[in-house]
Design goal:
The protein is built from 13 helices and 26 strands. It has 464 residues and is α/β, with parallel strands linked by helices. The radius of gyration is 24 Å and the shape is globular. Bound molecules: flavin-adenine dinucleotide.
Length: 464
């Protein structure tokens, strides 16, 4: 049967409504160049009466916080402009699964343009560099052509730029280890693992070098470090033992943590995870600090040198340079401090908000999680609408829904207010909870397809 191309009019009948672009107003651009080297995009799209009434809401970031505002904001009241170096939303809870091919990279990202912008140039693939709160102006830089700097005027600004991985000033981390925060990090880790496996088989390689290449060090026993270890363990058990059968006993993983692993979980669940990890022949828990990272291994606080072929660094968060440079109040972790309505302290105009990992509320410290960032994004969308409809804005309140973590071999931990559990049933809950939260029908189709493919045919170990 010959399939005809899908015509634009047909889309509305076959696609979920939220995936369609809703706005097709004519674009009328006015551009003026300021006396500085920046181009000012302050007066764009002021052609129609309706748009003149709308305030300009600028959102920085397309992560959990920013994307949540973008999806939930009532665009009747605001012209929404998004500035982010990333043109997609990343579903971070499943990022570790992509490092070994349980899931494919594109199965956990959603292009932000699918949310629908009023004008196509309302998304900027750029980084915010600084903010002039008095002039209500944002300075930005294109990520593809960094010398292209420009200014944007805003009426309301939402800062949702997240945070960086914290290196605690340990020498060599930036140069010789991989973080696990972005899709590019996962891709880098996956390639490095496959490269090392192939290098270890190179003719003439010494037994010590082979052992080094097949040793992975994970620094940090938080959920990210533990879940990466769990995914790698599944890869080892289900695929590596078959594809690299002669080397499988040489492969090892060391998880280094100075304190307790999964410290945000209850003690019972922590002990369960420790027992599981320790029962695995190729996995080792090391209680220590890493003091140096080298090209060929890490040095521990007691002077021991652990040779390894890959270091995955996941030890907490540090502020981004953009946040560091902002002239507003910050806490000890370098996060922006907000009031209970998420207004940044120090911005007298009350037009700058900060949400997610880059901020915290004065007197109400919340964990840096997707749950908090997403909920704050939703709250802000509602309160920004309340400002337009003269309704009272309630303070932000957060009640945790609990936490889940995967520990490998079809076992997970559930730490919820009503239930604490571990094992296979928790794994089923872990998978179904994330499946329902994926945020688009495309991802909800792709992720189970990847899981099924992995179960039936194993993980794809192609290197490209
Ligand atoms: C591997 C992994 C697994 C995780 N698992 C879980 C989990 O299971 N459950 C949970 O609750 N939390 C989890 N988290 C934590 C959760 O992902 C974060 O708390 C959440 O992403 C924070 O959201 P955010 O919007 O503040 O920042 P992010 O989601 O990091 O988004 C920041 C955005 O800002 C953009 N940006 C950066 N700099 C600039 C700039 N100068 N200008 C404009 N934009 C900028 C970035 O490109 C990005 O789009 C996990 C995190 C990781 C890394």
């Amino acid at each position: 049967m010959k399939l005809n191309k899908i015509q634009p009019g047909m889309m509305s009948s076959i696609l979920p409504k939220r995936l369609l672009l809703h706005y097709s107003f004519p674009t009328f651009l006015t551009r003026r160049t300021s006396s500085s080297s920046f181009t000012t995009l302050g007066n764009r799209h002021l052609s129609s009466n309706s748009s003149q009434k709308r305030e300009k809401l600028v959102i920085l970031g397309t992560g959990w916080g920013g994307y949540s505002v973008l999806k939930n904001i009532n665009k009747k009241y605001y012209d929404v402009i998004v500035v982010s170096p990333r043109n997609h939303f990343l579903f971070t809870p499943l990022l570790a699964s992509t490092t070994v091919g349980t899931l494919e990279f594109r199965s956990i990202i959603e292009p932000v343009r699918n949310t629908g912008f009023r004008h196509t140039d309302h998304f900027h693939l750029s980084e915010a560099i600084s903010v002039d709160a008095n002039e209500k102006t944002l300075h930005c830089q294109n990520v593809l052509v960094p010398e292209k700097a420009y200014k944007i005027k805003y009426d309301k600004l939402v800062i949702a730029v997240g945070a960086l991985s914290n290196t605690f000033g340990v020498p060599g981390v930036y140069e010789h280890s991989s973080f696990l925060k972005e899709i590019a990090d996962a891709r880098n880790i996956r390639n490095r693992i496959l490269n090392n496996f192939e290098l270890a088989l190179h003719p003439g390689i010494s037994p010590e070098e082979r052992k080094r290449l097949l040793h992975i060090v994970i620094v940090g026993g938080g959920p990210t470090g533990v879940e990466f270890g769990a995914e790698f363990y599944d890869f080892l058990r289900e695929d590596v033992s078959r594809l690299y059968s002669e080397e499988k006993d040489l492969i090892s993983v060391s998880l280094i943590e100075a304190n307790k692993i999964l410290s945000s979980f209850s003690e019972g669940l922590q002990n369960y995870a420790v027992k599981k990890i320790q029962s695995r022949k190729q996995m080792k828990l090391v209680q220590s600090h890493v003091t140096e990272v080298h090209e060929n291994g890490v040095k521990l606080s007691d002077g021991t040198f652990l040779p390894c072929g890959l270091v995955v660094w996941s030890t907490g968060l540090a502020p981004r340079p953009f946040v560091k440079n902002l002239d507003f109040e910050k806490n000890q972790s370098g996060q922006l401090i907000t009031d209970e309505k998420l207004n940044v302290l120090g911005d007298d105009s009350k037009s700058i908000y900060a949400i997610g990992d880059c901020a915290n509320i004065q007197g109400n410290t919340l964990p840096c999680t997707a749950q908090v960032a997403e909920r704050q994004g939703k709250y802000l969308s509602t309160s920004l609408e309340c400002l337009k409809t003269d309704k009272e804005v309630e303070p932000f309140a957060f009640k945790s829904m609990g936490m889940l973590a995967y520990v490998g071999n079809y076992k997970a931990l559930t730490d919820m207010p009503a239930v604490q559990a571990q094992g296979f049933h928790s794994w089923l809950l872990w998978r179904s909870a994330y499946l329902t939260r994926l945020g688009s029908w495309r991802l909800r189709m792709q992720v189970p397809m990847d899981w099924t493919k992995t179960l039936l045919f194993g993980r794809d170990t192609s290197r490209f």
